[in-house]
Records
---
Amino acid sequence: MKRCKQAQSKTKASVEVVDIEDISFSEKEISKIRASLLEWYDENRRDLPWRRISNGNNDDVGSEEGERIAYAVWVSEEVNEMWAGLGYYRRARFLLEGAKMIAEGGGEFPKTASSLQMVKGIGNYTAGAIASIAFKEAVPVVDGNVVRVITRLKAISANPKVSTTVKNIWELARQLVDPSRPGDFNQAVMELGATVCSVTAPSCTSCPISPQCQALSLSTTHESVQVTDYPMKVAKAQKRHDFSAVSVVEIIEEDKSQSASRYLLVKRPDEGLLAGLWEFPSVLLEGEADLVSRRRAIDSFLKESFDLDLENSCKVVLREEVGVYVHVFSHIRLKMYVELLILRLTGGENFLPRKQTGKTMTWKSVDHEALSTLGLTSGVRKKCFIVKKASSFCWKAQVKKDRHYLVCFMLPCDFATKMYVPRRKYSLVRLLVD
């Protein structure tokens, strides 16, 4: 199907493009691109872990060595505690599941792109990277950098997010792969996109394949065309706005000081956002909610999940709003209202009741030291920081006894009176002193 509409508005009057399915590289182009790109890569490639293991020019890769390289490439692409805070948590889980699958299958690592894609969590990109770099299979690798390089080489104006465009870019990448050095060639294209053919400021004068670049050629003959017009800019989808109430629950055991307290963590479901990760108790709200509604939601969650009744089964030492934290995911903007809730329970967390329901809540409690070293998401760590920062403004009780009075300055929690006095205020509390 021929396409006669123009690529973008600013090239409408001068540049006509054809359907991406009609685009291909000539043998002459392929030969020049391979030679120029590999020569450039040999001189300019960055020092990355898996590149230290593999000598790109060595064709005699044994089975054991190939598998070692394969694991290095895989881990570099997919590496729960060490991963915490880096995002893309599903990849870490898939890495473990994939390793288990290989171990259960006899421990032999798949050596082709097609067999690699049968492993949980390995898609086209990772399969191509492992197969070409570790086992020298002539298969392509396509990431954002490769898309940018190829769309500029061929001045492709089609939407890069559309499945037909993606399919054809993979085919163009396949045409270019050097059969003698597939891993190095794939890395060379990615390296070029990451360092030279950048998104907003490509260094075309330093590009080894600029003579073959149609986008550059068009930019020199048409005032309305720029290299950065490619690939086509696609409007990002609007992020969904979600709201949640988060309660940092601190548990103090009976007859123990607050320094021996523990924090309650719950495990998220195995599917969905941040699957299987630990976090403070939280409730997703229907929208913006006032303080009373947020606390009601948290109270209901604690009662339903742990049969924990804040009015009857425990003593609330302190309950204070400590801040608001906004975390932006790829498709969600989550606004979290964070509170600190200090509870005194008889027997501490060992006697924390848990309601027996159809869905069992997985939870644990950790002390302050463990909380600071535990593998937690960046969002949970941020909430810890908010609580710590808020607590630093809550001074320790400054007590001055004057006959029958106790003066409490900016108390964070109870001190003899068992009453919370708001920050930046002081209260004169009368005691019955013998």
Note: Residues 27-44 form the longest helix (18 residues).
---
Amino acid sequence: MKKILIASLFISIIFAGVCNNEALAQKAKKAVSQKPMQGKIVSLDDVIKGEKNLQLTKERAKELFDSGNPLVFLCNKKVYFVQGADGNFAFKKLANYAHYKTVGIVGVSKTISGINFIIMDTIDKID
């Protein structure tokens, strides 16, 4: 039952994001913040399950990406889905930076229907 609930939540989040991809990407081109949001890359499944240690290794991040599990950006106890300027989710790029303790993302953050998104311009390690 718990897995069905998690799966339905994930599908609804993806559906909401896909519906707004183009509008978000167009708005992102207008005003990009130059100060990076600082946080870390985590697995959405680990956040939902309430895991204590959310730090990912490079191998685990690649494994999660390959199996289709979403990676998200955790900043100030808020979960953000990260999209590129083209409107596609940036899971692969996040997987490349997941092993760093802190990363910075420059872009525009939006909240749509209670779901946080970042239209990413650049990403870089902080630590």
Note: The chain has one domain: 2-125.
---
Amino acid sequence: MPRWRSCTGSNSRTRHGPRSAGARTSARNPGGRCCRRAPSSGYHPRTKTGSQGAGMIELYMWATGNGLRAAVGMAESGLEHRIHKVDLSKGEHKRPEYLKINPAGQIPALTDSNGPGGKPLSLAQSGAILLYAAEKSGRLLPKDPARKAVALQWMMMGCSDVAGNSGVIFALENTAPEKSAPITDFFKARLTNFLRNADARLAGREFLADEFSVADIALYPVVNQRKALTGGMANLNAWRERMSARPGVQKGMAA
């Protein structure tokens, strides 16, 4: 049975092999180094491991744009959580153990043993995970209704239009680049247009919804990956630098 590597944020090292170590990140001290060694029995999808307490959130991800979006969201939320790395290159997302967690066989996925009403919750899709973390923590969503609406608009654009076009570009460039250059250029132009819109939105603003929110987290992984497309976008590039300096973003991106 596969044992996925477990860690929490960038303050814990990833262990390999039959022993799995976990670390806990507390909402009281999201940047702390509170690490405890898990039992040597390894990780099983239906068995809690380590010294986790009630309400531990388990995030299953890999270092893709979608996976990093969820990891940054969890880190910035301050919610106690554990990260499990699901190696896509080894097909771990298609193994029976993982399909019990997310039958779609995709990452990211989240389980919360203390979900709404105290009942267990399983959740997929990076946008849904990001919104769940925001609502559960009381962070990452503006209180002002207008700002909240704007934050959700940009979050959805980041999770759909921006991430979708970037994903197509990745697939084309890594399958048959010599045959797909015109199609790749088409999707690069589409993505560049969305990024220009974000650049215009950030004129005179530090964040997309005027305060740090799910909108910024949703967009950041793609902007960070597609620096080659952001030439001349001074507002967007300055925003990316501000985002990159945040400890929570650094922790999530290092997952």
Note: The radius of gyration is 18 Å.
---
Amino acid sequence: MRYAAVALTAFAAMLSGAAAAPTTTEPNYDSPQPGYKLVPAQWETQAFVDGPFIKLEGTVQEVRAELIKINPNYDADFNITIDANPSPPADLEARTDF
């Protein structure tokens, strides 16, 4: 359970960065570098709090959209709040040690 909490916290942190609408076109996985192949990211996560782990593919936004299709209460169940305009922490200062 501890691993699940850590994994979900990390997943929620990634989701809070941007909430873009998923694209409706198929992504282009042709590699710009000859000899290499681009593959979609794979995620192992839960759609329900006590549910089994499932494997999903795609960007963070695509996976989140799929999780919400599976469980419309996903954000509430996992206590995820996404702030569209987050403000920086009050103790954040500009770096001067480059």
Note: The chain is about 30% helix and 10% strand.
